[in-house]
Each structure stands twice: as structure tokens, then as C-alpha cells.
Amino acid sequence: MSERHHVLSVLVENKAGVLARVATLFSRRGFNIYSLVAAPTDDPKFSRLTIVVDVESAPLEQITKQLFKLINVVKISELDSEHAVERELALLTVQADANVRSQVIELASVFGGNIVDVGTDQMTIMLAGEPAKLDGFEHLMRTYGIVDLQRSGRVALPKLEIGRPRLRSVTGKVN
């Protein structure tokens, strides 16, 4: 996470319309969402939203106060990048004719990527990892020609290190 972003883990009730209300709240207040990922938790009554927010658009305190006004928000925690595990998924379709195909395959392999589709002069690569790793791979693939690119946005959870605070709860609750 860069200094320009806050990563928020927001536990919400798993009900229809909650995601739309959160997105609408951000839009109405002019808060810039860098990425937003939503999925159910291990308890089907709840979903977790991982929201990466641009620091320039609003202070963290203002964001959390607005989120808590939504009835379905249960808990909000800020995840510090030093104490969190962050991952992202990318799918990239790149130019890869016969002359460079082996180079693209080798680079994908070095970065832990998988070739998921192959055409006559293009390849689609799937890569998962830390956002900085995906940034680096994307930069290298630009020299071959990126035809299409889709990134999932960050998902994050606190690291499980003993003796360190897992996460900073914005709610003031002890975690």
C-alpha cells in the first residue's frame, strides 16, 4: 500500500443492496475509491468489503464516520500494509507471436503466472500476488504490447504474527 491510500476492511451484513449503498455513499461524498472487492465471509450472514481509498479525497476519520451511518456496517478496520497480507489478481492479454512467445512464457513463469489462453499471436496470462509484483509484471509486458488488462483490486487480511497488533480497529473495539 502506498502512502496515498488507506486499506479498509469493512464487515457488513450480507444483504441485498449493501454494496450499492456503500458505493453511493462514497460517490455522494466525493471520496475516490481506488479499488473495491466484496465477497461473503466464512459466516454467510456477513460479507467483507476491502476498500482501498485515496487519501487525497478524504481523511480516514471522515470516511469511517460516513460508513458507520449505514445500518448494515458491522465493523471497520484499517489494515496497515506492514501488518497485512495484500493480494491481487490480474489477467493480461499480450502480443506474443512466434518470435517472442517463449520470452513471454518465461517471464510469466518467473513471476508465478499461468498461461490461461493462447491465440495465434496473443496470449492471456493470469497472475496473482502483491500489488507491487503485478505492477512490475505489467510494466515488463508493456514492451510486448498489452492488448487487454483486468485487475481485481486488492484483497487483504491482517498478518498472523505473534506479539504484533493484527489490525487497527477504527471502531475502537479490541481485536
Supply database-style keywords.
Alpha-Beta Plaits, 2 domains, 39% strand, five-stranded antiparallel β-sheet, 175 residues, alpha+beta, 4 helices, 25% helix
Task: Describe the secondary-structure layout.
Blueprint: E1 5-13, H1 18-29, E2 33-40, E3 46-54, H2 60-68, E4 73-78, E5 84-95, H3 101-110, E6 114-118, E7 122-129, H4 131-142, E8 146-151, E9 155-158, E10 168-169
Can you offer a commentary on this structure?
- By secondary structure, the chain is α+β, with helices and mostly antiparallel strands.
- The chain folds into 2 domains: 5-78, ACT domain (Alpha-Beta Plaits, 2-Layer Sandwich), CATH 3.30.70.260; 86-155, Alpha-Beta Plaits.
- It has 4 helices and 10 strands, in the order E-H-E-E-H-E-E-H-E-E-H-E-E-E.
- It has helices spanning 18-29, 60-68, 101-110, 131-142; strands at 5-13, 33-40, 46-54, 73-78, 84-95, 114-118, 122-129, 146-151, 155-158, 168-169.
- The strands form 2 sheets. Strands 2-3-1-4-10 form a 5-stranded antiparallel beta sheet, covered by helices on one side. Strands 5, 6, 7, 8 and 9 form a 5-stranded antiparallel beta sheet that branches.
- The mean pLDDT is 88.
